[in-house]
Amino acid sequence: MKRMVCFLLFVLSVTFFAGCEQKEEIDGYYIEYLNKDINEIEKVSYKTETEDTLVLIEEFLKMLQSDPKQVSCRQSIPSYVEVVDYSLDGTMLTLWFNKNYYEMSNVEELLCRAAIVRTMTQIPEINCVSFYVNDEPLMDAQGNVYGIMYPESFVENPGEQINSIQVANLSLYFSNASGDGLIKETREVHYSSNISMEKLIMEQLLKGPDTVGLKSAIPAGTKLISVSVVDGICYVNLDATFKNQDYSVMESIVIYSIVNSLSEMASISKVQISVNGDTSGSYRDSYKLSEMYVRNLDYVTTLEVESSKDTELTVDTESTGDSETVDETENREETKKEAKR
Q1: How many CB atoms lie under 10 A from the CB of residue 211?
Q2: Same domain for 34 and 144?
Q3: Which of 22, 90, 112, 156 has the largest CB neighbor count within 10 A?
Q4: 254 vs 180: CA distance, rounded Å
Q5: Are 195 and 154 in contact, with CB atoms under 8 Å apart?
């Protein structure tokens, strides 16, 4: 009898651990709730029998809006905030909320947003989430659009450690002085772990070059509305200032300054640029916004070539602080040698 009991316990234990292993891969879901003090997030295991994506979306949203019935937790989405609608486009889930969404405090909103995104992106078919409030993209207090969000957009314990600083070496492409070529600038950047790499690249492009002799290809004053990567395609949404014409820079240089810089990321194979979310028009005459562009290094040149062709290389003099050409410097040094002789 004891042998039989031991055997049964062995079988049950094997079945349990096998089930756990399988659940880790297929069904190991959890719902993220806010704690009672609304200063951190707690995970609660969730079991489901379905593998259907739309059913999972419905279940997860219902759980996020329901009382978890645990002493230490409360629902992630407040009762006064309503999820009006949702849609799934490829791997991006878009959620529409009523205007009461903006009634949450800053900390509660951040935790609510993190809980929603990290809960919903557990579903195998969902990689990212976009928020809308009253048919408008969700914005922060300064009027900046949050754009598409990933689990990596948030860090643990946001009340204690919102940001951690990392270092990246970026390869950015700026216009040469004549506006007919691109020159690569390598830049070391310290950045917050909360920011995506594609957003970091676009922000640095808009900031402009550090190298003397280069200039930004993107029209001055252009603002980034949002940028995201879905299935290898980077979607860049710029404001209307992008269409301000600066004919000192060729249109191809403007486009490929963005495309080539973003394509330095291994995860990006194509880039689509929109203006205020609109892809129906063109940039100047030749570049349709509806097109997806791939890396093109035909326009890339070097700063050394530009210096020899278009500008005189200068060196600073110590005595006056003025600059002079290389030829003038060589003549001055030769005169000194003659005087010594």
Answers
A1: 15
A2: yes
A3: 112
A4: 10
A5: no
Domain identity same for 131 and 176? no
For residue 76 the two structure tokens come to 């992630």
Using CA atoms, how far residue 82 sits from 86, 125, 238, in Å, is 11, 24, 30
| In a domain? residue 105 | yes
Helix orientation angle between 106-120 and 53-64, rounded to the nearest 10 degrees? 150
pLDDT-based confidence at residue 105 (cuts at 50, 70, 90):
confident
**pTM: predicted TM-score of the whole model, two decimal places:** 0.47
Here the tokens at position 278 are: 């609109």
pLDDT higher than 80, residue 9: no
Task: Clarify whether residues 297 and 324 are in a common domain.
Answer: no
Whether 150 shows a pLDDT value over 90: the answer reads: no
Statement to judge: residues 287 and 188 lie in one domain: yes
Residue 248 forms part of a structural domain = yes
Q: Give the count of domains, the chain.
A: 3
Give me the chain's average pLDDT, please: 80
CA angle 182–166–197, rounded 5-degree value = 45
Tell me if residue 151 falls in helix, strand or coil. helix
Q: How far apart are CA 268 and CA 170, in angstroms?
A: 14
* 167's tokens: 């270092």
Per the domain annotation, does 325 fall within a domain? yes
**DSSP strand E in the chain: where?**
29-35, 41-46, 73-74, 83-89, 92-97, 128-133, 136-137, 165-175, 182-192, 224-230, 233-238, 270-275, 282-283, 287-288, 300-301, 314-316, 323-325
Which residue bears the tokens 């009461």? Answer: 100
pLDDT digits (tens, 9 = 90+) for 169-215: 999 999 999 999 999 999 988 776 668 899 999 999 999 999 999 99
Q: Where are the alpha helices (DSSP H) in the chain?
A: 2-25, 53-64, 106-120, 197-207, 251-262, 303-310, 326-340
Q: Give the C-alpha separation, 336 to 332, whole Å.
A: 6
Cα–Cα distance between 85 and 83 in angstroms, integer? 6
The residue segments making up the domain with residue 253 are 165-304
* CA–CA dist 234, 292 (Å, integer): 9
What pLDDT is attached to residue 194?
A: 66
